[in-house]
Amino acid sequence: MNITKTTPWFLYVCLILLSGYKSVKGSISPSSEPTKDGKFGFKPTTLFVFGDSYADTGNTPVIISPSWRFPYGITFPGKPTGRFGDGRISTDYLAKYLGLRTPIAYKWRRFALPRQVVNKGINFAFGGAGVFETIFTVPTASMQINSFERLLRKNVYSPADLNSSVAFFSFIGNDYIKYNIFNGTSQGRPALIRRVTKQILLDVKRIKDLGVRKVFVVLSPPHNCVPLYSTSKGCNTSNPLTKLHNSLIREGLRKLNDENNEKSFLMLDFYKAFMTIFKYRGVPGVSTFSEPLKACCEGRKGGNSCGDVDIYGRRLYSVCKDPKSFFFWDNVHITDEGWRSVFSLLLPDSR
């Protein structure tokens, strides 16, 4: 698939999420324990990230990705950095919670100064990635883990590094996007979900078996509530496929945790957090979103998207005056303030 400056490609990279609603209480499962020193026995020193555009901090190529074009990054650090949003994303807020700096993107590891930066972790996440191959030629989850394993073979990380390490595994649903684009049937979706979730469980177990101490695994947020599919009045949250996807992950991680005494796998329930924010239009005492289902940055005409320009460099999009008042940055991705709100619910110390 060819990707041009005016093609809303990242809308296809939108992470298919599936729906259902419960309160956020207990959303760090199964142990519901925070992760700082004294909370589960060690202080994290290294963070490894595997995922898609919700976690990518700069791996996607500059030439094809809107994440490297204005106005992405306008809130933080004031310029595009390869993140899909106006500022910090999920990876940044998890790192903050752990007391770590955001790990460098794998693509830029050779340019890291000082070299100790690499020793604190790597982000392998790639916009458009899936558990399996998607409509883009990008590293799958298994390929990202392969890159991690190659670094281990080169002794970039010591056993001590791994013994105090945490992984973040955040693949939201580009596999389902591919299925929909190629006219997959509704009857076939449950089988696909079972295949995807089975591979997710194999992947996170592999990460643990490579020596990582704890692994955070994301549960899918509600697909129908991204601006691409929703309206300002609301979104359809009755899709049972969300419940199937998330319940299979939840049950699978419970079984993996039962196999060891450390309870190595922790869930971050994006679904509950997103739905709570939509219901209350923010997080009391943290944020307020007057229209939580509307995007801050939008294309001005059909077919245009945030960051698109014409052949003369003129903008084909509009940007809201205050990104902090919006949960969604574009038709799929979250604002800096939106992610801050999500993690304030999931991991209160990350505010």
What report would you give on this structure?
The protein is an alpha/beta fold and 351 residues long. The chain has a single domain (9-350), classed as 3-Layer(aba) Sandwich (Rossmann fold). It has helices at 9-12, 90-98, 116-119, 141-153, 159-163, 174-181, 189-209, 240-258, 270-280, 336-346, and strands spanning 28-29, 46-51, 104-105, 121-123, 165-170, 214-219, 265-269, 282-283, 287-288, 297-299, 317-319. The strands form 3 sheets. It has a 7-stranded mixed beta sheet, sandwiched between helices. It has a two-stranded antiparallel ribbon with strand order 8-9. It has a two-stranded antiparallel ribbon with strand order 10-11. The longest helix is centred in the middle third of the chain and has 21 residues, at 189-209. Mean pLDDT is 86; it is low at 1-36. Keywords: Hydrolase, Lipid degradation, Lipid metabolism, Signal. Residues 1-26 form the signal peptide.
Counting DSSP H or I runs of 4 or more residues, the number of helices is 10
Class of secondary structure makeup: alpha/beta
* Integer tally of domains: 1
Shape: globular
| Beta-strand content | 5-15%
Physical arrangement of strands within the biggest beta sheet: 1-7-6-5-2-4-3
Question: What ranges have pLDDT less than 50 throughout 5 or more consecutive residues?
Answer: 1-36
From the 3D coordinates, which CATH architecture would you assign? 3-Layer(aba) Sandwich
Level of helix content?
25-40%
Major sheet characteristics: 7 strands, mixed
- Determine Rg (CA atoms, Å): 19 Å
* Distance between the ends: 39 Å
Q: Return the CATH class.
A: Alpha Beta
Strands, count? 11
> Do you know the CATH topology?
Rossmann fold
Order of helices and strands: HEEHEHEHHEHHEHEHEEEEH
Mean pLDDT: 86
